[in-house]
């Protein structure tokens, strides 16, 4: 039975990909091509941020939380918690939509380009997949545990990864002392900006 | 009776496909695909002849011709590759590298498997060979369909139907041959019907999609804006990494 698994995986993967591809609306794709070839008036020298940093920082900022937790009643805290969770999910969804749009525009812009580099495309696709996974993971976390708990989980995981990174850097310094160490300001110790 | 009905229906559908392509004068446009359909039809009729006149030889003949049909199926994949990615050199490069990687892995796997295999039985080998050939076809199709979806390549009804139909058949073949190779499933007659039913479904998709000629949409005319790949890729990379760094909240800051 174990030799059946690779064939099952291939067959089911093909079925899933075929279904998704067949259900894609060709008219919507053509509309997107027109939009990419004739961009809307509003040229930007720098690519805009898909996730507005100010809003994100405000949503996840601990100062508001501290104020509400210390100065208000339980009812208000509950309402604040609920509203902030909804806002966080909406912020994440907007980010997901905007980055997906940017990736689609990239794909349409380069598909006829003879200079296209396979390695760069794979790196971009992997980065995008990582972003989608992170985004979806955070949405599920906020939905299941609320924003406050999610912040704590992120803090904990950031501390753990910081410790692992520090251990690896120490090991690397022992193995290869000639290798320059990373600067201390490259990572903020896992603290969430507040 | 059910097997006979499926067999005659499939032959009729194949004949209808060929007649429509000749009437609509698009046989030559999808030449490789129609050669595949013609081969399958001829093989099917030859099988009928062998079964009628020499029943003892039928089983051997069946497996050899089944292998032939699976081999000719690769031509359909080549047709899909040429027809869909003509005019999209960037996306074609990605697909080409993916397909070559699949071939390299398959050759490596076959060589290592042959070196380690001391016993070889023709009766089981034919079914396993077809299963493996269909699995490779499935991976090759994935290597084409995923970039087609990723790069949003516009495709006409005819080619969409060819891809969808052949994909369904390959998928059903991989699953049914894999289950059929198990000792407890192989002898059950139900598994033998999966492939003919899937093929009939495929022919139905092809008949609908290829009823009349509908060419692929022409690639868009090149924009006058300079399109420097590195510049576009750099901008997209910046957007994605910026978004990831925001999500990490406190990680890398760009």
How would you describe the overall organization of this protein?
The complex is a heterodimer of chains A (194) and B (254). By secondary structure, chain A is mainly α. Chain A has helices spanning 5-23, 26-37, 53-60, 62-71, 74-110, 118-175. In chain A, 74% of the residues lie in helices and 0% in strands. Residues 39-47 and 179-194 of chain A have low confidence and may be disordered. Chain B is mainly alpha-helical and 254 residues long. Chain B is 78% helix and 0% strand. Classes of the chains: A mainly alpha (194), B mainly alpha (254).
Keywords for this entry:
heterodimer, A: 194 residues, 6 helices, B: mainly alpha, 78% helix, 0% strand
Summarize the structure.
The complex is a heterodimer of chains A (194) and B (254). Chain A has six helices and no strands.
Provide the helix percentage of chain B.
Answer: over 70%
Number of helices of chain A: 6
Name the assembly state: heterodimer
The count of helical stretches of chain B stands at 8
The most extensive contact between chains is:
A-B, 71 and 66 residues
Shape of chain A: extended
The whole-angstrom Rg of chain B is 22 Å
Mean pLDDT of chain B: 83
The helical percent of chain A reads over 70%
Secondary-structure-derived class of chain A: mainly alpha
Q: Report the uncertain regions of chain B.
A: 250-254
N-to-C CA distance of chain A: 54 Å
Give the biggest sheet of chain B. Answer: none
Work out the strand percent of chain B: under 5%
Structural class of chain B: mainly alpha
